[in-house]
Write a structure and sequence with these properties.
Length: 386
């Protein structure tokens, strides 16, 4: 092992332990806050329980012919008020002290890092009003990433916004569970346009850890795919091996940080959270079929999630005269654009049951196509390296 590799390993371990310490401290601090937090959370739980749990937003406003025509797409835009209710229940998690409560015993396998933000906000605003604050932040976030990517290319900036809109952004503000991932994408995507090449490995390692802390297994792959595509569009010397390395580092950060939570929760709660984590992981990977069918669950997951790729057809047709195959540029982007398929296959049970929101990760495939069009046309116009 070379001195340089040892240096990176020591640095990675130090960052890992530091982030765990910071995240635990922030969780404990959030549960030390008082005010109207529990009152507002309880009112929100009642409001959700008395209404529709999974409202299909678009179908409520479209005329019947349009509803029929867009029914499949509209299904991917429905709200997830069920998870919102679970998040509000986590706000008022039981326990003898703030340390036990911060572990959220009922869902101890998740970090529930979103509570660091949700609990303080609930001191001042009720459930329904927080969503309008979320809408403002979403608009601000997509504006920031748009103007950041515009520094690379106006075409890419517009293409990224189109990808957001085609794959679920319109209703992301209506469900709390999507906030963490999208907010990380806005920040990480913007940073990706500014940071230097030598910081990419640690950037993806930290991004993986942060999404493991904040997210409830919604669409975490977006925090890898979108910044990776932005970096690939920006850099001329990035190779397939660089891409593979960044994916591995993101995965290590994501996996190791998530595994730390059941270990810490088991120690604090004196319960076997590790066993629950293991059984849930096995279930989400394979599990049972969400609907009676003879086809394997991984194929069901691909079918249910992959239907949203139909949105790529008009994009492909519009640019058909500008598209030609270049293996040097095409193979890395095929890999990145295909990552959602691999993710869906690995987490087959989770993706088959929750396809109506997990399909949002195919935004990566859409943006990968647009990055490819940008790269090959630059090559065609400049006759330089892609």
């Amino acid at each position: 092992m070379t001195k340089k590799i040892r240096k990176y390993i020591v640095k990675g371990i130090s960052i890992y332990l530091l982030l765990i310490s910071i995240c635990c401290s922030l969780l404990f601090l959030s549960f030390s806050l008082d005010g109207d937090i529990e009152t507002n959370a309880s009112i929100g739980i009642c409001e959700i329980s008395n209404g529709e749990i999974y409202p299909k937003v678009l179908e409520h406003y479209l005329p019947m012919p349009w509803t029929y025509f867009l029914s499949s797409w509209a299904h991917y835009l429905q709200q997830d008020r069920f998870t919102d209710r679970e998040m509000l229940k986590a706000v008022i998690a039981p326990g003898d002290n703030i340390f036990e409560r911060a572990m959220v015993p009922e869902y101890g396998r998740y970090w529930h890092g979103y509570l660091v933000f949700l609990r303080p906000i609930l001191m001042f605003f009720p459930y329904e009003e927080i969503k309008y604050i979320g809408l403002i932040i979403h608009i601000f976030g997509i504006s920031i990433i748009y103007f950041s990517v515009k520094r690379i290319s106006d075409f890419l900036a517009k293409g990224l916004v189109v990808s957001f809109f085609l794959y679920g952004w319109l209703t992301a503000w209506l469900s709390f569970q999507f906030y963490s991932t999208y907010f990380i994408v806005y920040i990480a995507g913007s940073l990706a346009t500014r940071i230097r090449e030598e910081t990419y490995p640690i950037f993806f390692f930290i991004t993986g850890m942060i999404v493991a802390f904040l997210d409830l297994l919604s669409v975490p792959l977006l925090t890898l795919g979108i910044p990776l595509l932005i970096i690939y569009a920006k850099e001329k010397r990035i190779t397939f091996m660089h891409i593979l390395l960044y994916c591995i580092l993101w995965g290590i950060g994501y996996g190791l940080f998530w595994i730390a939570k059941p270990l810490i929760a088991t120690y604090i709660l004196q319960q076997d959270i590790i066993a629950d984590f293991y059984h849930q992981a096995i279930y989400r990977i394979g599990g049972s079929s969400p609907r009676p069918a003879e086809i394997p669950i991984w194929l069901q997951a691909i079918t249910l999630n992959g239907r949203v790729l139909i949105a790529l057809v008009p994009i492909f047709l519009y640019f058909r005269k500008k598209i030609f195959w270049n293996i040097k540029c095409g193979m890395p982007l095929l890999f990145i654009g295909g990552m959602p398929v691999l993710w869906v296959c690995i987490l087959a049970n989770h993706s088959a049951i929750h396809y109506w929101f997990t399909a949002r990760i195919f935004m990566i495939s859409c943006f990968a196509l647009l990055v490819y069009i940008y790269k090959i046309n630059n090559y065609k116009n400049n006759h330089g390296d892609i």
